[in-house]
Design brief:
Layout (H helix, E strand, L loop, with lengths): L22 H22 L5 H15 L3 E5 L2 H11 L7 E4 L6 H8 L3 E4 L22 E5 L10 H11 L2 E5 L7 E2 L2 E2 L6 E5 L13 E5 L2 H10 L21 H10 L3 H21 L6 E2 L7 E2 L5 E5 L1 H13 L29 H9 E4 L7 H14 L14 H11 L3
Parallel strand pairs: 2-3, 2-4, 4-5, 5-8
Antiparallel strand pairs: 1-9, 6-7, 6-11, 8-9, 10-12, 12-13
Helix pairs in contact: 1-7, 2-7, 3-4, 3-6, 8-11, 9-11
The structure holds pyridoxal-5'-phosphate.
Pyridoxal-5'-phosphate (PLP) binds next to α3 and α4.
């Protein structure tokens, strides 16, 4: 790898490692609140569901402006339970994107239904709504748009299609808590919304956890049953469900973090603005496509994914790994090309935008506690591979005022 780098890299000072995400830094800020929340649960010895879960459900419902929120064991379970709540049966077809985390399509398969993929828009990485209608057959029962990386999919056209063809919409909002579309939050933009509290999410637990939002009281009742083996109360099982409860400890930790969610998201957005400035300063802007924020949307940057040409992306990734700067590819293999979905009959070339994205995207550190200095290291190291590093860039190129303004703003929590 070093052979392909400009010779100037030989004399660069040793690079300070930059983590991809630093949950320890987050915990440092909130340790007393989290420990107190955990202590209270231990004092009551009520570890499953209970008051903490009920309160957290109310808080999430209020935050998303949904009538109901139902806690469950993970984002994956939220998707599975939602599909069952919509009466999805084996053989039904569910339209979704192939450019997402595996769980979206895994959940569809898990309930015996068939994932039908539709390609993405190149700018938002979300499902291309103009291509959805062509994928509808008499077996289609629902659409699962994914609000990838924290930006909502184009929901209005999806709604029009759903109403015309009598389809349900399950939002996979697992990466998008707090994200908005036309002023409304993810989770109330479809029939049902699914969230994940995996530790790296903008609101992350101390383990797995999930939540389902809906305005439909019938669906909410069904979901509350399904997560406890179909029990409608008093060991009266009216259907077969699952054990998919949210632990009290998770709810307590998430409640302690919830008041900080908005400021953490604002810090992520400020970090995104700093990256744009740095890309310009390091003269790499023409080689990098920064995430597009589409009109009437609020991107919450669960991931900050740039695009670099496929020839350069892997070189950049390899170099960042060499110098211990965190970076990742979400996702390197679209779902229609996954071995386990071979039986669906898709082939390379079926979804060119998803396949191109898989070869070009690169997620950079964006966590709220990230410092401007660390961001400059990330960009400097990218610029080295792209052979754009001016010699002067070995010292910070951002004017001190800019640095200070952003570093104070991002310490919002
Ligand atoms: C888009 C998407 N869908 C579903 C999931 C599944 O969530 P969980 O890991 O909580 O099961 C995730 C989690 O990473 C996700 O990013």
């Amino acid at each position: 790898m070093a052979d392909s780098l400009p010779s100037s890299t030989n004399v660069l000072p040793v690079c300070e490692p930059v983590p991809f995400i630093d949950l320890v830094a987050q915990y440092r800020q909130i340790k007393p609140q989290v420990q107190e929340a955990v202590r209270k649960v231990f004092d009551t010895q009520r570890f499953v569901m209970g008051e903490e879960v009920a309160q957290f459900e109310c808080e999430v419902a209020s935050y998303c402006d949904s009538r109901a929120a139902i806690g469950c064991a993970s984002g994956t379970d939220a998707l599975v339970l939602s599909l069952i709540a919509l009466d999805i049966k084996p053989g039904d077809e569910i339209i979704t994107t192939p450019f997402t985390f595996f769980a979206t399509a895994g959940a569809i398969h898990r309930v015996g239904a068939i994932p039908v993929f539709v390609d993405i828009e190149p700018d938002s990485f979300n499902i291309d709504t103009e291509k959805v209608e062509a994928a509808i057959t008499e077996k289609t029962k629902a659409i699962i748009p994914v609000h990838l990386y924290g930006q909502c999919a184009e929901m209005d056209p999806l709604w029009r299609i759903a109403v015309r063809f009598n389809l349900g919409i399950i939002e996979d909002a697992c990466q998008a808590i707090g994200s908005t579309y036309k002023g409304r939050r993810a989770g109330v933009l479809g029939t049902i919304g699914c969230f994940s509290f995996f530790p790296t999410k903008n609101l992350g637990g101390a383990g797995d956890g999930g939540m389902i939002t809906t305005d439909d009281p019938h669906i909410a009742r069904k979901l509350r049953r399904l997560r406890v083996h179909g029990d409608q109360g008093g060991y009266d099982h009216v259907e077969v469900g699952f054990n998919s409860r949210l632990d009290s400890l998770q709810a307590a930790v998430l409640r302690a973090k919830m008041p900080l969610l908005e400021s953490w998201t604002a810090a992520r957005q400020q970090n995104a603005a700093v990256y744009e400035e740095l890309f310009r300063k390091y003269q790499v802007r023409d080689q990098i496509t920064v995430p597009a924020v589409l009109p009437e949307r609020n991107h919450i940057y669960n991931q900050y994914c740039i695009r670099i040409s496929r020839q350069q992306r892997n070189k950049v990734l390899e170099h960042l790994r060499d110098v211990q700067v965190g970076a990742a590819v979400y996702y390197p293999k679209p779902l229609h090309l996954q071995t386990c979905f071979k039986f669906l009959g898709y082939q390379e070339g079926d979804f060119p935008e998803s396949e191109r994205a898989a070869k070009e995207v690169l997620a950079l550190p964006i966590f709220p506690e990230l410092e401007n200095r660390q961001q400059e290291i990330v960009v400097r190291e990218i610029a080295i591979v792209l052979e754009r590093t001016p010699k002067s860039a070995r010292t910070p190129v951002l004017p001190p005022k800019f640095m200070q303004q952003h570093s104070t703003q991002q310490r919002v929590a």
